[in-house]
Amino acid sequence: MSGITQDVLMAYLDGQLDAEARAEVDARLVADPDLAQDLAQLQRQSDAIRTLYGPVASEPVPARLSPHRIALEQSRRQWRGVARAAMIVALLGIGMAAGWLVRPASEAPALYNRLIADAVSAHTVYVSENRHAVEVPGAEAEHLSTWLSNRLATDLAMPDLAGSGLAFLGGRLLPAPAVPGGRAAQLMYEDSTGERVTLYITPSSGIDGPTLETLRLGDDNVLYWANDFVTCTIVGPQDPQRLQALADSVFAQLTPSAPAVEYREL
């Protein structure tokens, strides 16, 4: 990172640098486009994490775990002479409170949310690459389809989005330890202006969640859908209506025998 480490960039984003250090980073960002691109990637990842997990961190403590309420109930039980029962209730209350406080760290998000987060992370990592944006180029689409189908244990077509103004750049196999089979496919497309969109595809077996989810993460829009065969998360800077139109074409080509997706208003 041209002498400025990732830790320094993270501290810069979090507002933890003093004025002198921040001014130094500002100057380097102006002079070094690669460093500015690194910062933009970190910002997009940070935005994605906040969007997915921020609501959990802002949840209020349930009223039943209020220290005052717990103390009051304990006092009432002691007043009634049931000291042992009061002690048990107090211990249980402390355990519940401790469990709630550590919940954001110990409870995993819904699996489909993890797929969305993985899709955005993979998009952020590879969409800015030039020579290594894909593992297998689009010119080898037939080979790529066979290879990914075998690895994901499902028939996987390579959607042709030329009619939507997108050229197929190719794809890659990605690890996905959270899903059965542990693998995902990423396909990448590019329009005439250089804007890229990616598809993150996994088998749907064992994944519960909505059939459709749309959201905004940093500079990108995300559209997730699932049916009985596959899940597909589309990530790109295109507006939501554009992604929906792309999803119609992608859905029809990935699972031609499945019913059409019905979109709700964004």
Describe this structure in words.
- Keywords: Membrane, Transmembrane, Transmembrane helix.
- The chain crosses the membrane at residues 82-102.
- By secondary structure, this protein is α+β, with helices and mostly antiparallel strands.
- The chain folds into 3 domains: 6-57, no CATH class; 63-106; 111-254, Phosphorylase Kinase, domain 1 (2-Layer Sandwich), CATH 3.30.200.
- The chain contains 9 helices and 7 strands; from the N terminus they run H-H-H-H-H-H-H-E-H-E-E-E-E-E-E-H.
- It has a 7-stranded antiparallel β-sheet, with helices on both faces.
Keywords:
Phosphorylase Kinase, domain 1, 7 strands, Anti-sigma factor, transmembrane, 18% strand, globular, transmembrane helix, 9 helices, 266 residues
In terms of per-residue confidence, which ranges show pLDDT below 50 for 5 or more consecutive residues?
85-107
Shape type: globular
Mean pLDDT, rounded to whole units? Answer: 78
Structurally, the number of domains stands at: 3
Q: Provide the succession of SSEs.
A: HHHHHHHEHEEEEEEH
Transmembrane segments: 82-102
Organism: Devosia sediminis
Protein name: Anti-sigma factor
Keywords: Membrane, Transmembrane, Transmembrane helix
What can be said about this structure in brief?
With about 270 residues, this protein is of the alpha+beta class. Helices cover about 45% and strands about 20% of the residues. The protein has 3 domains: about 5-55, no CATH class; about 65-105; about 110-255, MucB/RseB, C-terminal domain (Phosphorylase Kinase, domain 1, 2-Layer Sandwich), CATH 3.30.200.
